[in-house]
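Researcher: I'd like a structural prediction for the single chain below. Treat it as a standalone chain; there are no partners to consider.
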Amino acid sequence: MSIVIRRGANDTTDSLIKKFQKKVALENVIQEYREREYHKTDSEKRQERRAMKLHKIMNARRFSD
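Model: Treating it as a single chain, here is the predicted structure.
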């Protein structure tokens, strides 16, 4: 997975950095790196999924009014 940023005629260094950061954020590169940094067992992954589901349900109940 490579990220390529093309330089336009009117692009400054700052604008190129902003474009790069935006593209990295959209492709979830940092999040994927953090997930792969440490090995998680299957049970840990299941616990995280359950916690996320519970969190979404609680938020839906909280903001449904």
